[in-house]
Design brief:
It comes from Termititenax aidoneus. Residues 5-79 form the Polymerase/histidinol phosphatase N-terminal domain. By secondary structure, the chain is of the alpha/beta class. It contains nine helices and eight strands. The protein has helices spanning 21-30, 51-55, 88-92, 112-123, 143-153, 161-164, 171-184, 205-213, 226-233, and strands spanning 5-6, 35-41, 63-64, 67-76, 96-100, 130-131, 156-160, 189-192. Strands 1, 2, 3, 4, 5, 6, 7 and 8 form an eight-stranded mixed sheet that branches. α3 (88-92) links the parallel β4 (67-76) and β5. The structure holds zinc ion (ZN) (2 copies). The site of one zinc ion has 5 residues, from loops.
Length: 238
């Protein structure tokens, strides 16, 4: 089963990723994707793109190599009050916003309760579309509470293929727990590559396999369908 939209990818604009947007769009086309979101790291990530990089994403064409390009960002959760590292006006201008906690940008010494409260604030942010890689065991979360809030606010919870390649202790079991709750709640999910190089764009086979085995229904995997994905994000396709 192949995704038609990859909503979390990084270009050289991220500072620690290795392909141009042109190379990524071409790779997306070759993999049969209809939609590719470029979600470079926001400024607080070391080497992340400057605010003006996101402002000027409007210079990109809507279609490149026949693939609908989405102007996005992977913003960092930078404080316990759920603050993000791009201004709301900037986020409002983007097609897709992935919000993530990262070891280098997000407070690391909070309790599970504090992390969960931090996430509830991020979920309440109207500009956030997707919660990125919440399985990261560095940030313990009450997954029941976080996923319930995501459902209530219409946010997508991502299953991140890159997490399956990590030796990070606990990521895999957290993914299973997240999938169990998503399944129970019959929620839409997205399975993204988090590619940092063109050859990984659209590559989600491991995450897809596990999600299906865990009982996530294909009709709930939003990005198997380009049209449904576009409708969810309120973007137009040709
Ligand atoms: Zn990330
Ligand atoms: Zn990422």
């Amino acid at each position: 089963m192949k995704i038609r939209a990859d909503l979390h990818t990084h270009s050289i604009g991220s500072g620690h990723a290795y392909s141009t947007i042109d190379e990524m769009a071409l790779a997306a086309k070759q993999r049969g994707l209809k939609i590719l979101a470029i979600t470079d790291h926001a400024p607080n990530m070391p080497g992340g793109a400057h605010e003006y990089f996101f402002y000027n994403l409007r210079a990109l064409p809507e279609y490149l190599h026949g693939v609908r390009l989405l102007r996005g960002a992977e913003v960092n959760i930078i404080s316990q009050n759920g603050a993000l590292d791009l201004e709301p006006e900037m986020l409002a201008a983007l097609d897709v916003v992935v919000a993530s906690a990262h070891a280098v940008t997000t407070p690391e010494n909070l309790t599970k309760k504090q992390n969960t409260e931090m996430y509830l604030k991020v979920i309440a942010n109207q500009h956030v579309d997707i919660l990125g890689h919440i399985e990261n065991p560095i940030f313990a979360l009450d997954y029941e509470a976080v996923i319930a809030a995501a459902q209530e606010h219409g946010k997508l919870v991502e299953i991140n293929n890159a997490s399956f390649g990590l030796a990070r202790h606990g990521s895999y079991n957290n993914c299973l727990e997240i999938m169990r709750i998503l399944k129970e709640r019959n929620m839409p999910v997205v399975i993204n590559s988090d590619a940092h190089v063109a050859t990984r764009v659209g590559e989600v086979s491991r995450a897809m396999e596990v999600a299906l085995v865990q009982g996530i229904k294909p009709e709930n995997i939003l990005n198997l369908n380009a049209k449904k994905t576009a409708e969810w994000l309120k973007i137009k396709l040709k």
